[in-house]
Write a structure and sequence with these properties.
The structure holds 2 protein chains of 2 kinds.
Chain A: E1 7-10, E2 13-16, E3 28-31, H1 36-40, H2 45-53, E4 62-69, E5 76-83, E6 88-89, E7 101-110, H3 111-114, H4 118-128, H5 143-159, H6 187-193, E8 206-215, H7 218-224, E9 230-237, H8 240-257, E10 273-274, H9 278-313, E11 319-326, E12 328-337, E13 340-349, E14 352-353, E15 359-362, E16 370-375, H10 378-382, E17 386-387, H11 397-403, H12 406-415, E18 419-422, H13 425-430, H14 439-448, E19 452-465
Parallel strand pairs in A: 3-4, 18-19
Antiparallel strand pairs in A: 1-2, 2-3, 4-5, 5-13, 6-10, 7-9, 7-11, 8-9, 8-19, 12-13, 14-17, 15-16, 16-19
Chain B: E1 3-6, E2 12-18, H1 21-36, E3 38-39, E4 44-52, H2 56-74, E5 76-86, E6 90-99, E7 102-103, E8 109-111, E9 118-119, E10 125-132
Antiparallel strand pairs in B: 1-2, 2-10, 3-7, 4-6, 5-6, 8-10, 9-10
Helix pairs in contact in B: 1-2
The chains are: A alpha+beta, B alpha+beta.
């Protein structure tokens, strides 16, 4: 689109007015710097955002975060809220990897101690946490066991002994979404997820050992238990094949159901159904169950990482959960609309919840910084309590592979003091840092816009990926 | 080549065309299987499937997704398909291929994004298919 039509509302916030396109029900808004709109306009994410603004029951505006990029139907880095009575639910507004998210663990060790052990640590964690294409985990669940995980998420992992006492208190929604119905998950989806608990998968998912290299807000960092030089572990993964199959199943069901509800769309990946409809409720129940599967997954990975950690550093060394947050999810939340508080279904696709006082975890790409922020009150007024989720891909996998070989990339990362354990040379080069947008610029927009404030920056010491 | 892979920022874009619907479905399956990079093919296998959909585009995407979930859950790679029936809104088919140890590429889903199976002025059926990888 012509970015000259973008109207600047305030610093870091731009708007495509509702009358830009005849079918838009609300304006579309983008959080960005003066320069970022040009980057964003280089793909179809703004067109996709306008498509979202045209969906039934949307409230206030369709939002794009500064890391937005073209996705399927909805852009990745998009947020949209819909009325519970007149609005829709769309699997494409949540993403295929339901409850893809990030968990940050804090250690009691400093960088100087861990730096001498990074290769051993990387190998040990890599052996404990299966990753890569089609890799199954160490648990293969029978139907009734899988149903308990789908219904109770991380809580079920705690019941099985894979959690420490206060882990659940440090997970968004306590690691279990209400309204999850295992019966809403297809046989296909269960088959894909049955042996995938405790696995990272491929693509941009990883376990990363890092350290706190800068503290921006000493008081808040202290409150969170973060200190300069402290070693951390970041876990980024989601609901694996199970979540993808849930999305596939329900997009298919909604494509069939839309004519019944007189919904026509410019892109089938926007497939949706009224939230109150049988199809909408079936997907919401299945999405909640897949979300629980993802939290159980990150909980089991945490237990495996702890085992590796203690194998390297001794049984007394602890890893505590700072927070675990989803960035592909839809949740019912209350917001003030036209002076009245209303329950809304907030879709976050590649967007992180950023409620006031809540830790907001923004992972970088392999070899670059990650950030811990804290949500601010303004997020409730301007972004439906949402923030960005990462750097966002800027270069195709093919181009990334063509630009650098695995050997050279490994040498470059090791020269920066980063140990690598990767299952696939191809997957490794596809995730080269230069294939992603500048995380510092993305986080600056969120900080300067007042959505969430920078607390600390993390730098990697070891990266484990598929 | 009845299917070709094109650049995509995050995932894989495939273009497929054929003189008949059967040719497009067959070549799209072959393209997906090639993309998945099956490892160590073993014993021959067949799977029967039956699907219906609102139109030809949805039927093609549903067909590939059905084959994909069978590939992933049964560890099988399908190199051929025989249609007992194929219309624009339904199919009955037998997939044929081999059991495998696994796959080199993690195809997570076949999406509807950009998919629009239609006849070009040349008379050929053609569409783009985006794979979430």
């Amino acid at each position: 689109m012509d970015i000259a039509r973008l109207q600047k509302i305030e610093d870091y916030l731009w708007e495509i007015p509702q009358d830009f396109r005849g079918d838009m029900r609300v304006p579309a808004r983008i959080f960005a710097t003066e320069r970022l709109p040009r980057d964003i306009a280089s793909d179809r994410s703004l067109e996709q955002l306008m498509n979202v603004a045209a969906l039934p029951g949307i409230r206030e505006y369709a939002l794009a975060m500064p890391d937005v990029h073209e996705g399927y139907g909805f852009p990745v880095g998009g947020v949209a809220a819909f009325g519970l009575e007149d609005g829709i639910i769309s699997p494409g507004g949540i993403g295929y990897d339901i409850n893809c998210g990030v968990r940050l663990l804090l250690s009691g060790l400093r960088k100087e101690v861990v730096a001498a052990h990074t290769h051993n640590l990387a190998r040990t964690i890599f052996a404990e946490v299966p990753s890569g294409t089609g890799r199954g985990g160490t648990l293969s669940l029978k139907d009734e066991e899988l149903d308990l995980v789908l219904a109770r998420g991380a809580k079920r992992m705690a019941e099985l002994g894979y959690a420490e006492d206060d882990d659940l208190a440090h997970i968004e929604s306590g690691g279990v979404l209400p309204g999850a119905d295992p019966a809403a998950i297809s046989v296909h989806a269960k088959s894909r997820g049955r042996d995938q608990l405790g696995t990272i998968g491929a693509g941009n998912h990883f376990v990363e050992v890092g350290f706190v290299d800068e503290v921006f807000d000493a008081k808040m960092a202290h409150r969170m238990g973060i200190a300069l030089g402290q070693v951390t572990v970041l876990i980024h993964t989601g609901s694996r094949g199970l979540g993808h199959q849930v999305a596939t199943d329900h997009i298919r069901a909604m494509v069939r159901a839309m004519p019944k509800y007189h919904i026509t769309l410019p892109d089938r990946e926007l497939a949706c159904a009224p939230f109150k409809s049988p199809e909408g409720q079936a997907y919401f129940s299945a999405m909640n169950a897949a979300g629980n599967f993802a939290w159980a997954n990150r909980q089991l990975i945490t237990a495996r990482v702890r085992r590796a950690w203690q194998a390297v550093f001794g049984a007394g060394e602890k890893l505590s959960v700072l927070y675990d947050v989803a960035h592909n999810i839809a949740k019912i939340e209350s917001y003030e609309i036209d002076g009245k508080v209303e329950g809304l279904l907030v879709h976050r696709k590649g967007a992180t919840r950023a409620f006031p006082g809540q830790p907001v975890l923004i992972p970088g790409s392999m070899g670059t910084a990650s950030y811990v922020l804290v949500g601010e009150k303004k997020s409730l007024a301007t972004s439906f309590g949402s923030s960005c989720h990462g750097a966002g891909r800027a270069m195709s996998r093919t181009k990334a592979r063509a630009r650098i070989g695995a050997k050279q990339l490994r040498a470059e990362l090791e020269a920066q003091g980063i140990a690598i354990a990767a299952g696939s040379r191809r997957g490794f080069t596809e995730e080269a840092p230069f294939a992603y947008k500048d995380i510092d610029a993305v986080v600056s927009v969120i900080h300067d816009a007042g959505i969430a404030s920078r607390v600390a920056r993390l730098r990697p010491l070891a990266v484990m990926k598929g | 080549m009845p299917y070709t892979f094109k650049a995509h920022v995050a995932d894989v874009r495939m273009q497929v065309s054929g003189r008949t619907l059967r040719a497009v479905f067959k070549d799209a399956l072959a393209g997906m299987t090639a993309l998945a990079k099956p490892r160590s093919p073993g014993a021959r296998v067949t799977r029967d499937i039956a699907l219906s959909a609102p139109d030809a585009t949805a039927l093609l995407i549903d067909f590939l997704n059905e084959a994909l979930v069978l590939m992933l859950t049964r560890r099988e790679a399908y190199s051929a398909v025989v249609f007992e029936h194929l219309g624009e809104r339904g199919l009955v088919a037998r997939l044929a291929g081999k059991s495998v140890e696994g796959f080199g590429e993690d195809i997570k889903a076949v999406t509807y994004h950009e998919a629009a199976l239609a006849r070009a002025p040349s008379g050929f059926w053609q569409t783009t298919i985006i794979f979430d990888v």
